[in-house]
Structure to design on (397 residues):
């Protein structure tokens, strides 16, 4: 019987905490804490490492046609301005086509490597690594929602996040202004909490009030609409001695390398001189494929950045970028709650009402937002029953 093993990273501790063995029909054969599993005895044809969606950012960006390697190179330009840290510290995975762009999944390289190392310590080598929200089943053009275990998982066109119910309600309300509501799953009918008004206003949608999370993500895995994070430098590679043919070919190449050592050393200087021209040619090729109407290419990096910034300003991606910054900045401000949120497409600003306990909390929030490459402007504030409510504007400089 074909079985899939799901290993879940806990969003709090950042360590593997739970596992589920699911059969081909989507039924959970076994679910337990990591300590209760003996992975050496499991008979699973596929292992999936499920990452907390709070650590994986989803964007949609227009990318030029070409190979996945070329797409990943162009994606670096697409996210460079919106990222709060250097792009070379991030791993960018390319997902399916979505309307006017490709779906991107972005995660810190060191964090991803740490999770892979933690899986290796269990004796497990994942066949797939996917964000939890990206395994929620999807319908084309629709937003799917699941509320299980006190966390909300949302996925849709150019959209994907995991958050607590209070924050999810504000972000989901904005996201549903540009897409229809698809399937909704929850553990029981009374578990929707602050999401209930948002979902009711969005209209009728298929509901499942007794959802099993393991079965749900198994269905999402079969659907294939997720973004696989094992790409590029993190892609799985066959063992070096997996086949005799590989061994003999490697031996032949080694012998040729030894015999040709002198010739290679002589050619090294020429190759290094050629490399700079090749890199520029590759950059110009990527830019020309993405924007064929641009007839003069002087500085491909600068021109690509300028054009992608213009494309993003015409869409809704900036809202999710700013919402992600606000979400992350609120993590260590325990008293703060987002009461409402809206995006001004004309100014490119996120306007939110935040309730908090003390003025020091607002200063902490301001510093957190600045650390993520954005700025906060505080508007009108009012006090009521020992709490403070302020209108804030979050924008990128």
């Amino acid at each position: 019987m074909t079985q899939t093993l799901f290993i879940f990273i806990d969003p709090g501790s950042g360590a593997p905490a739970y596992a589920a063995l699911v059969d081909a029909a989507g039924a959970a054969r076994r679910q337990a804490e990591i300590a209760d599993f003996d992975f050496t005895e499991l008979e699973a044809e596929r292992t999936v490492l499920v990452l907390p969606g709070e650590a994986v950012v989803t964007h949609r960006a227009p990318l030029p046609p070409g190979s996945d390697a070329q797409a990943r190179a162009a994606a670096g330009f697409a996210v460079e301005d919106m990222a709060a840290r250097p792009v070379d510290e991030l791993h960018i995975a390319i997902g399916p086509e979505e309307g006017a762009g490709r779906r991107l999944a972005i995660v810190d390289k060191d964090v991803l490597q740490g999770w892979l190392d933690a899986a290796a310590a269990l004796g497990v080598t994942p066949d797939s690594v996917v964000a939890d929200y990206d395994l929620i089943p999807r319908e084309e053009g629709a937003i799917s929602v699941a509320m299980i275990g006190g966390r909300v998982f949302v996925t849709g066109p150019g959209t994907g996040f995991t958050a607590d119910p209070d924050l999810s309600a504000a972000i989901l309300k904005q996201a549903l202004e540009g897409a229809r509501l698809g399937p909704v799953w929850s553990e029981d009918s009374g578990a929707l909490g602050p999401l209930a008004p948002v979902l009711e206003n969005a209209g009728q949608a298929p509901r499942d009030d007794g959802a099993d999370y393991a079965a749900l993500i198994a269905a999402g895995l079969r659907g294939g609409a997720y973004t696989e994070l094992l790409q590029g430098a993190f892609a799985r590679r066959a063992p070096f001695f997996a086949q005799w043919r590989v061994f003999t070919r490697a031996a032949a190449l080694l012998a040729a390398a030894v015999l040709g050592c002198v010739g290679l050393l002589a050619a090294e200087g020429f190759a290094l001189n050629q490399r700079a021209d090749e890199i520029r040619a590759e950059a110009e090729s990527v830019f020309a494929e993405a924007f064929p109407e641009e007839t003069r290419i002087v500085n491909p990096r600068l021109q690509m950045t300028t054009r992608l910034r213009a494309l993003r300003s015409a869409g809704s991606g900036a809202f999710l970028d700013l919402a992600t910054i606000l979400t992350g900045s609120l993590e260590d401000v325990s008293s703060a709650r987002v009461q409402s949120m809206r995006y001004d497409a004309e100014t490119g600003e996120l306007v939110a009402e935040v309730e908090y306990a003390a003025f020091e909390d607002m200063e902490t929030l301001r510093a957190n937002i600045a650390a993520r490459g954005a700025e906060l402007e505080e508007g009108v504030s009012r006090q009521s029953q020992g709490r403070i409510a302020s209108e804030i504007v979050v924008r990128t400089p």
